[in-house]
Design brief:
Rossmann fold; seven-stranded mixed beta sheet; alpha/beta; 6 helices
Length: 175
């Protein structure tokens, strides 16, 4: 399954990261975890610590809050967690979101080993009241559409339950 991409999408605290970790562990004993979250407060520090503890050993971890392309130079299976935090980082850094998205998609597509990307579905709630949040929601929706279009397989996780939206055969042929 070299070079295949899987998108795992779901709401906050839906179980998507744990599901994605299990998928990547199925690709072998060595794997790369691309972490996009930054710990700006104690709540986020705790969340990152819980993710680290749950993953355990066997992971090379690269923190890539903005530019993950340099970390994709090897040939290990990759878990990119998560595109939502990555997008937030770009938005708050006032980066060109269209350019950043194009670079991200190119980097993910060029990786020779499987890539599992985690992202949040943010479009099922109410219309946000402020312009920044509306801009983020729209950008996240566009990014998710592009990631899903490029992915060989898309899995939506709700309440810890995976629902394959695209490429079910790919999951059946996984090592």
């Amino acid at each position: 399954m070299s070079g295949k991409s899987i998108l795992v999408i779901g709401g906050a605290a839906s179980g998507k990261s744990e599901y994605a970790e299990d998928l990547v562990c199925g690709f072998g004993p060595e794997r790369l975890y691309l972490a996009s979250a930054e710990a700006h407060d104690t709540e986020m520090e705790r969340k990152i610590a819980l993710h680290r503890e749950r993953r355990g050993s066997g992971w090379q971890v690269v923190e890539a809050p903005l530019d993950l392309a340099p970390a994709l130079g090897g040939d290990l299976p990759v878990l990119f967690d998560c595109a939502t935090m990555w997008l937030s980082n770009h938005l708050f850094a006032d980066r060109d979101l269209a350019r950043a998205q194009a670079d991200l998609l190119a980097a993910l597509a060029s990786h020779p080993a499987p890539v599992v990307t985690v992202t949040n579905e943010v479009g099922q709630g109410i219309v946000p009241a402020d312009p920044l949040t509306r801009r983020f929601r729209e950008a996240q929706g566009r990014l998710n559409i592009a990631l899903a279009r490029q992915a060989d397989c898309v899995v939506q996780v709700v309440a810890g339950l995976p629902n394959v939206l695209k490429g079910a055969d790919l999951l059946k042929t996984r090592p």
